Amino acid sequence: MTPTKIKQFFTQYKLLALLIAIAIIWTFFSMKTEGGFISPRNLSNLMRQMAVTGIVACGMVFVIIAGEIDLSVGSLLGLLGGIAAVLDVTQHMPLPATVAVVLACGLVLGLFNGFLTAYAGIPSFIVGLGGMLAYRGIVLGVTGGATVAPVSESMVQLGQGYLPPQAGMALGVLLFVLAAVLIWRQRVNLARHHLPVPALWRHAVRLAAIGAVLFAFVSTLNEYEGIPLPVLLLLVLLGIFSYIATQTVFGRRIYAVGSNMEATRLSGINVQAVKLWIFGIMGLMCALAGLLNTARMAAGSPSAGTSGELDAIAACFIGGTSMRGGSGTVYGALIGALVMASLDNGMSMLDVDTYWQMIVKGGILTLAVWVDVATRSGRR
């Protein structure tokens, strides 16, 4: 295959290329671990690991689409997770109150980052770099530099709980029905506007593929304990963020700001407000991820979230979000998060040295950006 054809393939079939990459990664690790990698227990653990990075990536994809970057998310995740642990362990605050306080702190800190970027005119790279250092320092002060444990059983359930198998099957059926309704509505809308409607068999094959994936996903996780609650939350966020990106005015404005900020401003859109709320959403996602990470580990660690910003940014770039802004999808970022989590999990199972894990992840991030640059230059 020539370089030109490779560029065309990645440009037109990014999602398919990602799925092929995941299949190759899973096959390799499965062979090396004699099937242990794809066991229901390990896949359940993999999905829980992916959920934290995926939640942060949901917010990061909007930030990058808008043409900005946030390097503080790993430290902010650690800070908010540490606050949750302190409130739970030392203050004995009820779980609903702890969640509300942590979410409020995440929103405020996210809006603060957005204010510095959008209204104070400080480049987001510098705001994020300063936040990376400041938030890590604050979490060391909040926790006293020591692990805060053990958290309450109710909080542990947030990160280690499971959806009962029967409820998991019901959820799978509900998602399949929802997919069928959305595909049918798409056909109806195309016909209503006198646009070409794909052959019925194409949509039937697509729906069958969705059904097969859902069945495999639910049945595999049910073989262990059920669908982990963090994964359930991630699925909800996928639906919410995809709806915002594709069906709301705010979502369209995010893409417009990243594509051409000056033209967007001249069209009457408040670019500063859009950026402010993008960072606010990012703060909320850090709060959710921090809560789940503390619950999953059953403790608040001052080192939690270290390099979390790199995993989230890499997930977005691997998933097809352009480093130039104006292009990207939420589901692509989550598939990118699955790639990163699969590499982490598989290399840990093989006892690969930490420095090699860092080299591999850094190389994949560089490759993802190169693909973005190459495919975009190929369209000029």
TrEMBL record:
InterPro entries: ABC_transp_permease (IPR001851). It comes from the Bacteria. GO terms for cellular component: plasma membrane. The chain crosses the membrane at residues 12-29, 49-66, 73-93, 99-121, 133-151, 163-184, 204-221, 227-245, 274-292, 355-374. It is a multi-pass membrane protein. Keywords: Cell inner membrane, Cell membrane, Membrane, Sugar transport, Transmembrane, Transmembrane helix, Transport. Its main location: membrane. One of its GO terms (molecular function) is transmembrane transporter activity. It is found in: Cell membrane. Part of the binding-protein-dependent transport system for D-xylose. Probably responsible for the translocation of the substrate across the membrane. This is Xylose transport system permease protein XylH.
